[in-house]
Design goal:
By secondary structure, the protein is of the alpha/beta class. The protein is built from 9 helices and 10 strands. The longest helix has 18 residues.
């Protein structure tokens, strides 16, 4: 079942007297339970595509259907509710509220949505165990390392059991070891929670955790590689690097 469908997606910007086409007719489908990485050189349209499919911006032309809802038919309030309930976001910068504890930051989306947080205690406990922060659940962000803060941000994205998690450069502000931990957690959430995940990254090591790599250049998809589940990560990494070298040549 398709969680996300983008058809003939265009995005144009006006810069001075010139029109810039950031996306030039993208067709893109993500199935339930897929782990997809979007890659491409700087200016290829990666972040623009992420913002559009997450409902944070609107396309110039084309249609996006998210969790069965055509975004163009939704009013602003409906679009906000759809994002809140169906999309989990993980950003390069953790965006945690400094006055809240780890568990309070994780359950913030439920609080904003008017949910009774006590009913989600079992899921909260399971997510804290998944990210390895059960013992630090009452620590505030300033008491956590960068990697721990990103793990809290990931759990916050997962708490609502969203239709899709969108991660924009989730390892970009982390050292290599900590970034590996975050990607392993994303991989685990896909495998164990059957969570649909789309990651935008420039890092081939991060992308190698995905089962499918979509390559962009000049606002268009130029390749779409799929790996079988049993393909070793090292083999995926080599294929990704080879493809990136082709794009840059």
């Amino acid at each position: 079942m398709a969680v996300l469908v983008a058809k003939n997606l265009h995005k144009r910007y006006i810069l001075g007297k010139h029109q810039v086409e950031a996306l030039a007719g993208i067709d893109f489908v993500v199935e339930e339970g897929e782990f997809v990485a979007i890659m491409g050189p700087s200016g290829s349209g990666k972040s623009t595509l992420m913002h559009l499919i997450g409902g944070l911006d609107k396309p110039s032309d084309g249609e996006i259907t998210l969790a069965g809802h055509p975004l163009s038919l939704l009013k602003d309030k409906q679009s906000t509710l759809l994002r809140r309930r169906n999309v989990g976001f993980v950003f390069q910068f953790f965006n945690l509220l400094p006055t809240l504890t780890a568990e309070e930051n994780i359950t913030l989306p439920m609080l904003i949505d008017g949910k009774n947080i006590s009913k989600y205690q079992v899921r909260l406990d399971a997510l804290l165990e998944l990210i390895g922060l059960t013992e630090r659940r009452r620590h505030k962000p300033e008491q956590l390392s960068g990697g721990e803060q990103q793990r809290v941000a990931l759990a916050r994205a997962l708490i609502t059991q969203p239709a899709i998690v969108l991660a924009d450069e989730p390892t970009g502000n982390l050292d290599t070891k900590t970034g590996t931990t975050i990607m392993e957690l994303l991989r685990k959430s896909c495998d164990e929670l059957i969570q649909t995940i789309v990651v935008v990254t420039h890092d081939p090591r991060a992308a190698s955790y995905a089962d499918r790599i979509v390559f962009l250049r000049d606002g268009s998809i130029v390749d779409d590689i799929r790996f079988e589940k049993n393909i070793p990560q090292a083999q995926r990494l080599r294929a990704i690097i080879d493809e990136m070298e082709k794009l840059e040549s």
